Amino acid sequence: MSLSKGLWGTGWRRGLAIASTVIALLTWCNRHFDHRIGTVVADARRYDGKTVKLSGFVANVASGVGKRGTRYTVFDLGDGSGWLTVAVQGGLACGEGSRVSVEGRFFSAEHVGGNEPDNQVDADWVTCQEGLTPSEVLQRLRDGRQSPTGR
Questions:
Q1: Domain range spanning residue 29?
Q2: Phi and psi for 36 in degrees, rounded to 5?
Q3: In this structure, are 29 and 41 located in the same domain?
Q4: For 49-76, what is each residue's pLDDT tens digit?
Q5: Does residue 49 sit in the same domain as residue 24?
Q6: For a Cys staple, 108 with which of 8, 10, 48, 128, CB 3.0–4.6 Å?
Q7: Between these two residues, 134 and 119, which has the higher pLDDT value?
């Protein structure tokens, strides 16, 4: 009887609690750890249409109004491993050279097509972290490349 209680009594509850904790931890890790831009761009098919969280430096900020009158902002995001374009509805509270975190859906060149940039994140949110001078951005990125979109 004690064997039965050990397997089916408190034991299975403990196993369920451990399994639930592991699943919750893996889910949290997937949502809260940043991806590298170079990794996302290099494996674009894998990330296409999926939510990514990226951090990097803002460059080439441009704003506009869409066909339906919706204001949007587009900028390049670089982290030293690569660059991609980020589009967000509304304005951007921080300017060029600012370090930001972005979460949104990634779309590869094959998915976007047309006149759109090669790789783009449609951001759900953008969080400004700090402002840097352009020389500090270049120093932190270590490669000094211009953004690939040339905006």
A1: 1-33
A2: -90, 140
A3: no
A4: 999 999 999 999 999 998 889 899 999 9
A5: no
A6: 48
A7: 119
